[in-house]
Design goal:
The chain is mostly helical. The protein folds into two domains: 59 residues, no CATH class; 133 residues, Tetracycline Repressor, domain 2 (Orthogonal Bundle), CATH 1.10.357. The chain has eleven helices and no strands. The radius of gyration is 19 Å and the shape is elongated. The N and C termini lie far apart (44 Å).
Amino acid sequence: MSKSADEASGAVHAKAKYHHGDLKEALVLASYALVAERGAENFSLADACREAGVSTAAPYKHFRDRDEVLEIIVARAFDVMADRSMAAVTEAGVGTLDGIIAMGRAYVQFAVEEQRLFRLMFGQHPKLKQAERVVSDGTRCFSSVIEQVAIYCDKSGLEGNPKEIAVRLWTFVHGAASLLIDEDYAIVAPEVDIEKMISDATPLLLAR
């Protein structure tokens, strides 16, 4: 199981969960791991059933269809991203410039390490973005950025709108992450130092 799948499951293996009677969770964990490894385009519920060691009829007792499973995977991926970001913030300093820089770097690092999940979270299957659980978890993930910006503004005496500033920061790091995993930097600017770029740009984006 991948690092991300471990995080999504609380480090509990899908088959171990199944043996404890939680078939639904076993299928979710198996599905999450498969999507992280292969991508949504190469994921099937039948493969998840084989991974979890259950019959191919099992998912339909717990899920509407394959899309519902993908919705759950995307929601959990947002939770994992949020956890990694806040861990980085805690280490660097809550509500500080260093903490916000660390959050941006953690975002890009997640995109690099979990490319298949990242692509699924942001547009590979547009209708998934409308699912209630995805909107809820995605919004909660973004709210942590707004919160850190708000604390920073309060500490620094800045009067900017924390949400507007957070949107600027997100736009920048998401664009950088996308260009990086799509290998556009490798073609146009192979010498670019992403971490330094985030460090240099963040203070400017935080300014009113």
